Amino acid sequence: MKKYYFGSNLKMYKTIRETTAYLTSLAELTNDIGREKIELFIIPSYTSLEQASASVDHGLIRLGAQNMCWEEQGQFTGEISPLMLQETEMDLVMIGHSERRHVFGERDEEENRKVKCALDHGLTALLCIGETAEDKQYGVGPEVLRMQLKKGFHEIDSASVGKLWVAYEPVWSIGVNGTPATAEYAEKMHGEIKKCLEEMFGEKSREIPVLYGGSVNPDNGEELIVQPSIDGLFVGRAAWQADRFNELIRNAMKAVGL
Ligand code: 13P
Hints:
This protein has 258 residues and is an alpha/beta fold. The chain has 10 helices and 8 strands.
């Protein structure tokens, strides 16, 4: 049976108290959903990680960090080390989110170092990729995605695929000014991503879930999740109220017959 992934990146929203209240409520609301069917994960801000981790059953909600340095320690002011994430018992780390790449100027080479470092420290690496509006306009979206995957997962052994997740988040679809991708477009790009992953990791690549993110909302969640190459939804704004996220998850599950 195919497992579906539902997660939210809390970005620079929610204080420690708001995060723990949100997690407690989300865990309660989704408690009855068998976790053999879905993987639910939340990615709060750094300052919330310790209390978030202590306040939630990781079997119900997996937790992740929004970014990480590729070194364990050193002269990297403002960065967070994998050891610090291990200390807060994080399950995963997001790498290369669109806002990291486009607001803070991160490059594929750095994402690759972070992916390697995450794997070395037993963390699942959620690599985010996506083309810009300009890439789309020039018709090079698939090439850009390929480049981000091939560089981001450079020198990663196929033995590690169990710890790799991918989120496809077209830059033009994210946030308040974003336009959600149509289900048809998203499916086409997910197909390209899966083809590339297969070239890189062979049959084992099927273990890598590919999630769609970018203005997922209660109106489009169902048509996206029913696409054969979409394994999950990575949600921002529409997930930040626990009851709304719970409803979105349940509607999506119904749509795929779970
Ligand atoms: P929105 O759903 O708010 O567009 O954000 C998506 C996102 O960036 C998830 O990482």
